[in-house]
Amino acid sequence: MSTDNFDEWIDDGCATDSAGIDALLSVLARLNPVEYDQKREAFAKEHGIRVSTLDAEVQKLRHVHMATTATATGFEEVKPWAKPVGGANLLNELERTINRFCVLPEHAAPLIAAWIAHAWAHDTADISPVLAFTSPEKRCGKSTAMAVVHALTPRAEIATNLSAAVMFRLIERHKPTLLIDEADTFLEAREEMRGMINGGHNKQLAFVWRCEGDDFEPKKFNVWAPKAVAMIGELPDTLEDRALVIQLKRKEGSEIVERMRANRAGELLPLRQMLARWVADNEISLANSDPELPERLNDRAQDNARCLCSIADVAGGDWPERVRSALVGMAVLRAGEERKSKGVLLLSDIGDVLDRWKGGRIKSADLIAELVAIEDGPWEVWRGGEPITPRMVAALLKPYDIRPERDSGSRFYVVDDLRAAVSRYI
């Protein structure tokens, strides 16, 4: 019996015997937390059952359903842990596991742990922040971080160079935790995919319409799923606004972590089972949570923080304070590193180049060489780990009314024009 005709079945009086009540309990167990909360008191009153007893029986059936769900698609079937799980201890163990394999900036580990729990409790949330691992260059631990998240989240699927058409069909059919690796190689050029990721941030808006079949019948696809992204460079602005950004750096020789080998996924199965059990036991509390949010966060950051604060509040222990402190700490850290616009960043570094430049013009090739040589600058790995090109520099300078000129031998910039722009905007 589907959940759609649940009320109709009660109204028809078909649930008067114990078999009928058992069938209804099974349907109740399949309702999402909000729907169940709307029906539980009326059902308990109608059938003379205490609400606490009803909750306990429904929770038992949810464990059974989760343990017996078919996984012919190839996604892992996770049987929930046999005993109740303490939320604070579970998050502590998640954080410890994350730190075993990853070198992370301050504040990151507790937020990643809470996000992983959010992935399991995804349908209890209204807003789902993207977990984003970024770095200025290669070999900073992004793939390792994604592998750890893959080993700890439900129905996880790592996707590299994913198409938009595959993405929304994959989410609609399988409800995975979608992990988009190496996004710098394709995401910027795929506006449709960025729109789906952005739209999937809000449960109410997480749909796309596409034509299907020979008759091109319009069909609505759900793009509501937990998502993580890893890329070199900066996120697109609209995506960064919807993300929990973890800026990774290359580890130093003194920073020692374990390797995240493929066989670790089996080793971490108990943690996945504990997460499944804890969420099953607490999904009603999570769905009804209305957490207090740090006032120091802006409106969008508060939206992103809501699900993490709900996880922390229901888990208890010192996690409510720890998650809020980490959210504020990460926001302050990001604000201190807040990027300038790309054009202003370029003009700032051009100003440094011109301070030591002799002559009234600078060849485009020479300007590129000077920019790429800046230590710890972004220009050596500007696009997909490759250096910035003359065409890219020209595109960034065009809004400031600066254009390269050409003589018989090469393209060049007039130094006075560059200095005027630097003086005006920097």
Could you walk me through the main structural features you see in this protein, from its secondary elements to its overall organization?
With 426 residues, the protein is of the alpha/beta class. Helix content is 50%, strand content 11%. The protein has 18 helices and 10 strands. A 5-stranded parallel beta sheet has the order 2-3-6-1-7, covered by helices on one side. A 3-stranded antiparallel beta sheet has the order 8-10-9. A two-stranded antiparallel sheet has the order 4-5. α2 (18-30) packs across α4 and α15 (342-355) crosses α18. The protein is elongated and about 90 Å long.
Name a few traits of the molecule.
10 strands; 426 residues; single chain; disordered N terminus; alpha/beta; 50% helix; five-stranded parallel β-sheet
Termini distance? 66 Å
- The succession of helices and strands, N to C, reads HHHHHHEHEHEHEEEHEHHHHHEHHEEH
Residue fraction in strands: 5-15%
Shape: elongated
Largest sheet: 5 strands, parallel
What proportion of the residues is helical, as a percent range? 40-55%
Note poorly predicted spans: 1-17, 66-73
Q: Count the E strands.
A: 10
- What is the CA-atom radius of gyration, in angstroms? 26 Å
Strand order, main sheet: write it out. 2-3-6-1-7
